[in-house]
Amino acid sequence: MLRRSITVMILTLSGAVWPSASPAQVFLRDEIATTRRNAIVRAVEKASGAVVSINTHRYKEYPRYRDPFWGDAFFGSPAIIRERIPSVGSGFIIREDGYILTNSHVVENALEISVTFPDGRKFEVTDTANNVLMDRQHDLAIVRVDADGLEVPPLGSSEEAIIGEWVIAIGNPFGLTIRDPKPTVTVGVVSAVDRNFRPEEDGRIYQGMIQTDASINPGNSGGPLVNSLGQVIGVNTFIFSQTGGSLGIGFAIPIERALEVANRLIEGGSPDFWTGLVIHNNNRRIARAMRLATASGALITSVEETSPAQKAGLIPGDVIVMVNEELVDSADKVVEIFREGRVGAVYGLRVLRGRVVFNARLVLERDPNS
């Protein structure tokens, strides 16, 4: 029998097996290391330390099934069942003294909130009435924790965003389901800018949104959208999806608008107000069908019962053509004018009904859903 000897060599970086590296090999090794630490990696290092995980619990109550013969008295069971519903989102530090920016839909109706930092520190927000400030209409919120000397990420400008440039979505889609509190990173490009949305079902307003194909997964809402310089240019907010997963169509609130709302919340509390109006852009086709005297302005399509709009005498079919002596050419213009609104503020409207023009006085009231 022919026996073959097999020699096993163990190669180590520190042992004497490797010959000393030549200058060319050292250069190549350093070049690879430099290439790996590209702009995306450096940007993540600059911003990720300020990104937090926000875990919340809401409570939902619904009636318990009652036995038609015995009822609940015999067994002493409660008639109402209270279910504890967990949820997860993200946020990022905007002030070193404990102020965190996120989306209002992340913390809305939450009675229990915990904030976890990348280094593992965890803060319980128990006094939600005083430590959570929300602007539901613009889907932004401030969560305040008892901490100082926090890391604030570099802030950029969404107005300087370039279509096609690299961007990074940072967030915590896993929440506390994994032990590692460090955020997750996805990369894409700026797909478009200045996208406007006004979903009628929840009354929120999204203007000038940044569109990106960087994956914004469930749990990433409220986290930062960062450019390749490591600067925050937006707040990741929602996606278009038919499955619930990312299809590469995500949207972020521009950082300038987000900070404007955040500063207003910090300085003066919640500005949530209610008009009770649903409006739509007027156009020639609508004007012709409704026999209106103008094809511009904001067409009122719905007015809620007992709302400020109803109290102002407005009805569906009216067209707002002027607000506070400022001409209105679209529904978006009305939204822009009301963006600085406060509860109790009075707005003078010039309204077209059919071919009759009249003035209306609308007083903003607190949003009953806030």
Please describe what this structure looks like:
The chain has helices spanning 23-36, 39-47, 104-107, 128-131, 255-268, 284-290, 308-311, 331-338; strands spanning 51-63, 80-95, 99-102, 112-116, 122-125, 132-135, 140-144, 166-171, 184-197, 206-212, 224-227, 232-239, 250-254, 273-274, 277-281, 298-303, 319-323, 326-327, 346-353, 356-363, 365-366. With 370 residues, it is α+β, with helices and mostly antiparallel strands. The chain folds into three domains: 52-144, Trypsin-like serine proteases (Thrombin, subunit H, Beta Barrel), CATH 2.40.10.10; 158-268, Trypsin-like serine proteases (Thrombin, subunit H, Beta Barrel); 273-366, Pdz3 Domain (Roll), CATH 2.30.42. It has a seven-stranded antiparallel sheet. A hairpin with a 3-residue loop joins strand 2 (80-95) and strand 3 (99-102). The longest helix is centred in the N-terminal third of the chain and has 14 residues, at 23-36. It is globular, with a radius of gyration of 27 Å.
Low-confidence stretches: 1-18
CATH superfamily of the largest domain: Trypsin-like serine proteases
- The domain count comes to 3
Strand order of the largest sheet: 5-4-1-2-3-7-6
User: What is the mean predicted local confidence, pLDDT?
Assistant: 82
Number of helices: 8
Overall geometry: globular
Helical coverage, percent range: 10-25%
Structural class: alpha+beta
Radius of gyration: 27 Å
The portion of residues forming beta strands comes to: 35-45%
The major β-sheet equals: 7 strands, antiparallel
Total beta strands: 21
The H/E string reads: HHEEEHEEHEEEEEEEEHEEHEHEEHEEE
Going by CATH, the architecture of the largest domain would be Beta Barrel
Assigned CATH class of the largest domain: Mainly Beta
